[in-house]
Amino acid sequence: MASFVGLAAARSEVLLRAGWDCARDGLFGAPPVTVYLGAQAHASVLAALRYLGFGERQLIAVDSDEQGGMRPASLAQALRRTDGPAIVVGQAGHIHSGGFDPFEQTIPLARERGAWVHVDGAFGLWARAAPALSALASGVELADSWAVDGHKWLQIPYDSGFAIVRDGAAMQRAMAISASYLGTGPRDARNPSNYVPELSRRARGFAVWAVLQALGRHGVREMVERHCRCARELGQRLLQEPGIRVLNRIELNQLALTFGPTGASQAERDACTRQVIAALQRENRCFVSGASWSGHWIMRVSVISHYTDTPQMEALAAAIIRAWRCARPRQQAPGSGPGSRGP
Q1: The domain spanning residue 53 has which CATH number?
Q2: Residue 176 within a domain
Q3: Residue-wise pLDDT tens for the chain (343 aa)?
Q4: Domain assignment of residue 276, yes or no
Q5: How far apart are CA 323 and CA 69, in angstroms?
Q6: How many structural domains are present in the chain?
Q7: What are the C-alpha distances in Å from 320 to residues 35, 245, 284, 290?
Q8: Distances in Å between the alpha carbon of 340 and those of 166, 325, 329, 330?
Q9: Which of 17, 262, 280, 283 has the most crowded Cβ, counting Cβ within 10 A?
Q10: Is 320 helix (H, G, I), strand (E, B) or coil?
C-alpha cells in the first residue's frame, strides 16, 4: 500500500504536467506513462503498478549490477529512448543482498528527463537512522516519494508501512475521499482519508508511536547498527567453512548463501543449497528460507529481530554449518578407493 500511494501520486502528477487531469478525465485516452525500474525490483512494486493500471508494455526494466542496484548508464540509455510522462522507481535495500541503487547518479538522470522518482525503501531506508550506515542510501533524499516498512526493522505489526510524498497536493489529488461528515474546514482535525486508500482501518499509528517512544532515536540507531554488525559476523564465520559461499556484499543486514563442494556445477550447488535448507528446518532450532537470485538457489538470512545479537548469530552459524556438513556429498580421501589399503 505504501508503494501504491507513492506511485498513485506519481501517476497523477506526471499526467498533470502533461496537461491531463486524471482525477477529472480518468485514464482512458491519457498520454502513456513510462515506468523505469531496476531489473530486480521487488514484486510488491510490480503489484502496485498493476493495480494502478500499468501493464508490462509500460514498464522498462533497467539493467542491475551483481548486488541488484540499478546501473546509471543503463538508466540514462533507457531514458533517452522514450519521451512523455515518466516515473523512475529506485530501490533502497535489495530483498536478498541489501544493496542500494546509486541514487546520487540515478536521481539526477531522472530529474533531467522530468520524471518522478519513487523509492522502494522497505527496510533499507532505515539505514538513514544510523550515521555509520547512512551513506549507503546517499542521495535518496532527492526523490519525490518513498515507501518504508514498519513491520520489519521497527518491529511493529505486520501490515504497517509508511508512504512519504514530497508533494502533499499530488498525494491528496490521488488519494482524497470526500464526504461532508469527514470534515474539511480549517478547524477540523487532519483527515487521514486524504492520504491513504482505506477509509476504515485500525489505528496503526498508535503502535508506531509506542515503539518509537520505547526505543527512541538512539534505540532505533543501535538496533539497526547491531543487526548489520551481526550479519557481518555471521558472514565472516560461515566463510571459514569450505563449501559455503556468500554471494552478496554484506553492507546491511542480509546474507545470500549457497553451498556446494569445490568444482560443483550450478545444478549441484542448487541441490546442495536446497538440502541444507531442508536439514536446517528439520532440526528446528533456526528457521531460514530459500529463493532464486541471479541464477542461483540461495539460502536467505535477514537479521532483523529486536533481540538478535552475537549469541544468536553464533547459534545460527553453528546450525548452518552442522546442516551443511550433514548434507554435503561424501568425497573419497586420496588412496581410499577400491583396492587401496587405506591408512
Answers
A1: 3.40.640.10
A2: yes
A3: 999 999 999 999 999 999 999 989 999 999 999 999 999 999 999 999 999 999 999 999 999 999 999 999 999 999 999 999 999 999 999 999 999 999 999 999 999 999 999 999 999 999 999 999 999 999 999 999 999 999 999 999 888 999 999 999 999 999 988 877 776 655 666 777 888 898 888 888 999 999 999 999 999 999 999 999 999 999 999 999 999 999 999 999 999 999 999 899 999 999 999 999 999 999 988 888 999 998 999 999 999 999 999 999 999 999 999 999 988 876 433 443 433 333 3
A4: yes
A5: 31
A6: 2
A7: 40, 12, 12, 13
A8: 74, 26, 21, 18
A9: 280
A10: helix
CATH code for the domain in which residue 305 is found: 3.90.1150.10
Contact 52, 3 (CB under 8 A): no
The string of DSSP letters for 165-204 reads: ES-HHHHHHHH----GGG--STTSPP-GGGTSS-SS---H
Range of the domain at 232: 216-327
